[in-house]
Design goal:
mainly alpha; about 675 residues; WH-like_DNA-bd_sf
């Protein structure tokens, strides 16, 4: 096609072929080595030949033909030239990097640095496949010394999940390129701290580096002591993931006094590890754990040493402690630090903690959304914890088929003997089995989960509350003795942990299996304890259970009141399966739900709803009622759910809802009637 064309036309055609279709005329001319006039004449001829269609590359067959005629070597040179031109023009980094990838092995340090930066950015946005490709390509060039070690380290990090053995080999090679023991230790500490997928296989490397530090005579200065402590915490991190290393962890916990660890980031990391393991083994209670977690995180998180895996894992105590006010600020600072240092894994883990918190606090749809967002980023064993949260949310929503599909791709046994977190997957599968009527199978998985956890010394019932499920399943199967024993143990352990909400949740299942007047009294006590707790989903379950038990005992009036309240709580939690049960029990007690989907709106909700029905904006409503726009949004969300409408458009026709108005000067017609929205049955 171009055999008899002038050189300028051929060069421009080749430039057009290697550049993307949207490249402008100036860029094409510079890549072709033509001035603007020659490039314009050549472009006219390429339009005639069909290589160009206006300002864009004509079609793929023409492009392919041009590149094949040019040959592989010439194309690589053209891509290298295109990369230089685009870089000088300030083109996006990824666009420049793509041309360097096509140009063959990098030939100079500038290209190596550019590709390294591009790989780092790809990793930061979670594109490990691209990061790996860029790093592998960069290492094909004449790169040596510390630069090569840095590239190998980054490559090992992005390979950890997909190819752990290869990743370990690259890390070993990187360490061999660093002659100084302290530099090797620092490099390994930072690498393991940011590596996804666990660190079980890296424990020997960590121990080797610690020995090298001792042999080199380091460890007397404050910096060396802190580095050693960070490495020791990483050894514990690796050991705790491996069930065979449990004894080592508990031995360290038993012989370590947190108060004697000294000061500094390394000491704080070790204290966090001690706190985490003490909580897992119930050697400490929730209040102490929450206070010490806050103490172990400094006010200023500029040093990314505080994003150590043990430090971040200790923040997971946030979802086990009922009162989290003291930890909220710590969590926010950690999230900010993770975002600032591009630690998407830490951000995703803390979002996963949010999912578990939201679930226990009765915000089921929000919990599912948070879990899904976290699962998009998390890898390795930590992902199993969030996978369980998503599964439990789906089960509460009645979407068991979707829950089964979510769990189906997960390899059941690949990590069974490599991390205790595998038990989160067991419990998630048990929840799905129980929801689909496979009670005996669900119980078997639940008990296996419990045996595995206890075998590695994890007895805290709120870390993974398999005992609750075991009690309910034993009870459903008529195994009264086993159910009672499990329930009593569950109550005892929850009392040791401390918060009333968890104690109330345990009392609920004990009341279920006790039966009779004693069971009723226990359920009343459970409801009283849960009443002051943020664990709204457990409170909803307990209210429905108590209402059902009262109905069975012939107290129909009390049962109806409880079941209406339980139905309202279940609706507020976004738990349709629980709500359906409450509705069925209420009908059996001779009652029916209040019209509008649940129960009456609260006075605050009614005032907001009336103003919204009249066309007032959230800002107007907030000004009239003297509250925040966020509070208004929360009230409206609950109103829509209770009235079973999709949004503001449905408010005007909602039964019993009188439209209100916002008057000039911040006044509003917001007097709320005391009767319910809709008649009582």
């Amino acid at each position: 096609m171009l055999r008899h064309e002038p050189p300028g036309v051929v060069e421009l055609a080749r430039a057009v072929a290697v550049l993307d279709p949207d490249a402008d005329a100036g860029t094409r001319a510079r890549v072709a080595g033509l001035d603007d006039v020659a490039a314009a004449h050549a472009a006219e001829r390429l339009v005639e030949l069909g290589v160009l269609d206006g300002d864009r590359c004509g079609h793929d067959p023409a492009r392919t033909a041009v590149l094949e005629a040019a040959g592989a070597d010439r194309c690589r040179r053209l891509h290298a030239r295109a990369a230089r031109v685009l870089d000088s023009e300030g083109a996006p980094l990824d666009r420049v990097a793509d041309h360097h990838l096509a140009a063959g092995p990098p030939r100079d340090g500038g290209v190596v640095e550019l590709l390294h930066v591009a790989a780092a950015r790809a990793e930061q946005r979670g594109d490990r496949v691209r990061a790996r490709r860029l790093l592998e390509h960069t290492l094909t060039g004449p790169v040596g010394g510390r630069r090569r070690a840095a590239l190998l380290v980054d490559l090992s990090v992005v390979e950890r999940v997909a190819a752990p053995a290869t990743a370990r080999g690259h890390l070993v090679e990187a360490l061999s390129l660093v002659p100084c023991a302290r530099e090797r230790a620092e490099l390994l500490a930072r690498t393991v701290a940011r590596s996804p997928g666990g660190a079980v296989d890296l424990a020997p490397l960590l121990e080797d580096v610690l020995r090298d530090l001792a042999d080199a005579g380091t460890g007397t200065s404050g910096q060396d002591r802190e580095l050693r402590q960070r490495l020791e915490a990483l050894v514990l991190h690796a050991a705790c993931e491996d069930p065979s290393g449990a004894a080592r962890v508990w031995d360290w916990v038993a012989r370590t006094d947190p108060g004697e660890l000294g000061a500094g980031a390394g000491a704080d990391v070790l204290r966090s590890a001690h706190l985490l393991f003490s909580a897992l083994a119930l050697h400490t209670d929730a209040a102490t754990a929450a206070a010490r977690t806050a103490e172990a995180m400094p006010a200023d998180l500029e040093d990314d040493a505080y994003l150590h895996p043990m430090q971040v894992a200790a923040l997971g105590l946030l979802c086990w402690a009922e009162a989290t006010t003291g930890l909220d600020g710590v969590r926010r600072r950690t999230l900010d630090a993770a975002h600032r240092t591009h630690r998407t894994d830490v951000e995703a883990f803390l979002r996963g903690v949010d999912a578990m918190l939201l679930l226990r606090r009765g915000q089921v749809p929000a919990a599912l959304a948070a879990a899904r967002a976290s699962l998009d980023v998390l890898t390795g064993a930590t992902r199993l914890m969030v996978l369980r949260a998503a599964t439990l949310a789906l089960v509460e929503l009645g979407r068991t088929a979707e829950a089964e599909r979510l769990l189906a791709p997960v390899d059941d046994r690949s990590s069974a003997d490599r991390t205790w977190r595998w038990n989160y997957l067991l419990d998630a599968r048990a929840a799905v089995l129980a929801a689909t009527g496979r009670t005996r199978e669900a119980l078997a998985l639940t008990l296996e989960c419990g045996h595995r956890l206890m075998a590695v010394g994890i007895v805290n019932p709120v870390v993974l509350d398999w005992r609750r499920r075991a009690v309910e399943l034993h009870h459903e199967l008529g195994e009264h003795e086993a159910a009672t024993a499990a329930a009593e143990e569950y109550v005892t352990l929850c009392r040791l942990w401390g918060p009333e909400g968890y104690g109330g949740a345990a009392l609920r299942v004990l009341g279920l299996v006790q039966g009779g007047e004693r069971g009723l009294a226990t359920l009343h006590s459970a409801r009283a304890e849960l009443g002051a707790s943020p664990l709204a989903l457990d409170r909803a379950r307990c209210t429905v259970d108590l209402g059902a038990r009262m109905r069975a005992h012939g107290a129909a009036g009390e049962a109806r009141a409880l079941l209406r309240h339980g139905l309202e709580l279940a609706a507020d939690c976004g738990a349709p399966i629980l709500a359906a049960r409450a509705r069925t029990e209420l009908a059996a007690a001779g009652g029916r739900p209040r019209r509008g989907g649940s129960s009456s709106l609260t006075p605050a909700e009614l005032g907001v709803a009336r103003l919204a029905a009249g066309g007032a904006t959230n800002r107007d409503i907030a000004a009239v009622l003297g509250t925040s726009q966020r509070a208004v949004e929360g009230h409206l969300t609950r109103v829509y759910r209770k009235l079973q409408i999709d949004g503001r458009e449905g408010l005007a026709s909602a039964p019993g809802l009188r439209v209100g108005t916002c008057r000039p000067g911040g006044q509003g017609d917001v007097d709320a009637p005391t009767r319910a929205v809709g008649p009582r049955p």
